[in-house]
Automatic annotation (TrEMBL):
Gene: ubiB
Ranges for domain ABC1 atypical kinase-like: 90-344
Protein family according to the UniProt entry: Belongs to the protein kinase superfamily. ADCK protein kinase family. Belongs to the ABC1 family. UbiB subfamily.
Transmembrane feature ranges: 523-540
Name of protein: Probable protein kinase UbiB
Keywords assigned: ATP-binding, Cell inner membrane, Cell membrane, Kinase, Membrane, Nucleotide-binding, Transferase, Transmembrane, Transmembrane helix, Ubiquinone biosynthesis
Length: 550
């Protein structure tokens, strides 16, 4: 199976002339030799540009490669722009799998004999089918006897094995590229594939998707901006998810939206608002916002409300990430590139020894042309793309969650402009950035800090009398110890003085005894000697004792 797959991949790569993408001089002799030996697999699409050949090859290799290409299309720091653009057109055209097989998966996962036990009108023909899962409609029998319109998302059978096998091959290929490409260190193919593996495997777990949906729904409870369908978590498993069926207009159906009298300006602005609310208020954002996952509710066209589905990919941000975004955007829109450079160095995002002037100049070079457009037309997504590309050149490791955010931002802005071309992004986004900055720096920051620490103090308060008592007791103990220490010191000093006195007396005794001997007065000398020994013994006993305290 593995060798057949390797054969198929190698054949596809060569038939689409993808080996042309790597200059021959970069390859070791044995790979060049190997290519010549495979002369019966020529490039059959010579007339097509490289980007298109890559796109077609990935499409023919199947969903794992298509999704990989889609992910790469957002990494403009890694790929030339024409190839990145072409990859953005990747479509996964996969035939649906048998609806009866889906039914059996549902019955097995939910541990029921027949689908009719829980659902009515299960549609064997899928409503939609994608590379990883397909969606069937049905009605859920509720406890009160009511029927609720729902959809059941089912992961494709055997997709896990295909994904694992293809990922393994992709990893081997990445390892070869990392070893042989001169640009291997910068392009980091192994890391790119590892990141992809994580995203893809996350998408295979519908329990994770259900949890994301519940969290988003809670964040937008009672919101006029966004509706998230209810997920029935008790009927959801790793490969099956039951969700309220929504009835909205796909956001890509611009003509239909206009025909229904939807306020397009408001709709576009609300899209940006939803995104910034998720980022700066909740730190939790839907990161797969392609138009197929966004609908507009049919109820009130003057106050259009979004409906979101497909919560397989979400991004989370910590306070540092948000500070990075807010401060950089504000500095950037004030065209203060020095500040942008300093922010990166001060926060340790780029190494301390980075030359600020050089970094500032690099940021200016890539960002200044953006200001040739009116402020209203500037894309935050492109600002981030340029900023990250420059920062990477200065050794900044851009965090995956920030790359995910940049990608989502590009989607949102593209969508906003498609809905309402005159959309003033800056006007819509600025209040969010300013509010967030004020919350971090102004009096609100103090209030927030008190609020955040309140539970800690509330927990410690009942212990306060004990802590005070213990504190006072230990202070008393310390004072008593200090006093003892002082007395001991005094005593030691006194001992030293006494010992000094007896030592001098002994020395004088020795000197006098020697003098008496020299005078021939033996009896006096003997008396003096005995006296000197007695005094000497006294001096020995009076010597200060050195004690080491624990
Ligand atoms: N709650 C729902 N109500 C109505 N239709 C839905 C619902 N959820 C999904 N669908 C339909 O099923 C399609 C596929 O759903 P979803 O995007 O969740 O699957 P997916 O496998 O992640 O697809 P993709 O990979 O294309 O994003 C949607 O485009 C939509 O048409």
């Amino acid at each position: 199976m593995r060798s057949k797959r390797i054969y198929r991949i190698a054949k596809t790569f060569l038939n689409y002339g993808l080996d042309d993408l790597i200059p021959a001089r970069w390859l070791p002799w044995y790979l060049r030799f190997g290519r010549h030996m495979m002369f019966w697999w020529p490039n059959k699409h010579k007339e097509k540009p490289a980007g298109e050949r890559l796109r077609l090859a990935l499409e023919s290799l199947g969903p794992v490669w298509v999704k990989f290409g889609q992910m790469l299309s957002t990494r403009r720091d890694l790929l030339p722009p024409d190839i990145a653009l072409e990859l953005a057109y990747l479509q996964d055209r996969v035939a649906p799998f048998d609806g009866h097989a889906a039914q059996r998966i549902i019955e097995k996962s939910l541990d029921i004999e027949h689908i009719g036990e829980l659902f009515q009108d299960f549609a064997v023909k899928p409503l939609a089918s994608a590379s990883i899962a397909q969606v069937h409609t049905a009605k859920l029998k509720q406890k009160d006897g009511e029927l609720k319109d729902i959809v059941i998302k089912v992961i494709r059978p055997d997709i896990r094995e295909t994904i694992n096998a293809d990922l393994e091959l992709m990893e081997s290929l990445a390892a070869v590229l990392a070893r042989h490409l001169p640009d291997g260190r910068r392009l980091k193919p192994k890391e790119v594939v590892r990141e992809y593996r994580k995203t893809l495997l996350d998408e295979l777990d519908l329990l994770r998707e259900a949890a994301n949906a519940i969290q988003l729904k809670r964040n937008f409870e009672d919101s006029e901006l966004l509706y998230i369908p209810t997920v029935y978590s008790d009927l959801s498993r790793k490969n099956v998810m039951v969700m309220e069926r929504i009835d909205g207009i796909p956001v890509s159906e611009v003509d239909m939206l206009k025909a229904r009298g939807v306020d397009m300006k408001k709709l576009a602005e609300r899209g940006v608002e939803v995104f910034f609310t998720q980022v700066f208020r909740d730190s939790f954002f839907h990161a797969d916002m392609h138009p197929g996952n966004i609908f507009v509710a049919k109820d009130d066209p003057t106050y259009p409300r979004y409906i979101g589905i497909d919560f397989g990919i979400v991004g989370t941000l910590n306070r540092e990430d948000k500070r990075y975004l807010a401060e950089n955007f504000l500095a950037f829109f004030n065209r203060d590139y020095r500040k942008v450079a300093e922010l990166h160095v001060d926060s340790g995002w780029v190494p301390r020894e980075t030359n600020i002037e050089e970094f500032e100049s690099a940021i200016r070079t890539v960002c200044e042309p953006i200001f040739e457009k009116p402020l209203a037309e500037i894309s935050f997504g492109h600002v981030l793309v340029n900023l990250f590309n420059t920062a990477r050149r200065f050794q900044m490791e851009v965090q995956p969650q920030l790359v995910l955010l940049q990608k989502t931002l590009l989607y949102i802005e593209g969508l906003g402009r498609q809905l309402y071309p005159e959309l003033d992004l800056w006007k819509t986004a600025k209040p969010f950035l300013e509010r967030w900055m004020n919350e971090q720096l102004g009096w609100r920051a103090v209030v927030r800090s008190v609020k955040e620490n309140a539970p800690y103090w509330a927990e410690k308060l009942p212990e306060l009398p004990n802590l005070l008592y213990d504190g006072l007791r230990s202070q008393q103990r310390i004072q008593a110890q200090l006093e003892r220490h002082r007395i001991e010191q005094l005593m030691t000093q006194q001992q030293a003085a006494t010992s000094q006195f007896w030592t001098i007396l002994t020395a004088s005794g020795v000197v006098s005894s020697v003098w008496l001997i020299s005078q021939g007065t033996a009896a006096w000398a003997l008396g003096s000697g005995i006296l000197t020994v007695m005094v000497g013994l006294k001096a020995w006993r009076a010597r200060p004792q050195i004690k080491i305290k624990e």
